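Hey, quick one: can you model this chain's 3D structure?
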Amino acid sequence: MENMPMNIHGKQITAARALLGWSQPELAERASVSQTTVNNFENGNRDTRTDTKEAIIGVLREAGIDFLESGLQFKPSRYEIFDGPDCYLRILDDIYYTLKDTRGEALFYCSDDRLSNGVTVEKELFMRRAGIRMRCIIEEGNTFIRYPLSEYRYIPKRYFNNHLTVTYGNKVALLFDINERAFVLENRQYAENQRNQFELIWSLHKQPKTTTIERIHDE
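Sure thing. Here's the predicted structure for all 219 residues.
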């Protein structure tokens, strides 16, 4: 772990949460500590352990917070790399935390429901129950469609590849190496450009007419 100045004080943690729009429970969950620990840190409790402080500060830094000598700032652009077979599940978690308060929309380009296992489907259903909306662009002829047909559009096979791109909030996630590695860029302008491209492709292509599996959600 990179060196973390331990003179960071509680008011900076509170300000960082406010800048990110996070509650104390959310910061605690992301840092794998208790809400009481977060509250103690923010209120200047000197008994707060160094390792839990590092966990809290580390999560805030990963979210784009730069701690300065007399304050903090939010980086206009940041990125993360997720490695391993669970990288897509981590992307779904990030989509949830990014969109849950706004009930926003995630746009999946080059999506394929055939690659989703039971754990993935459970997470997707959890996100949907939280009000998060989804739309998918899939390969022409693929009739393995799990959700309402209105949420899908076809693109010709020659334009489809197995590298999923997901746009959500101010973030764009790209999955590589047969979904073993994910790159997440947080940049408002780039996310808006990707969203516009998705909308253009969506407007030009057809909705699937049928599915060969039982849909989880009715139209």
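One thing worth noting: Confidence is low (pLDDT under 50) at residues 1-5.
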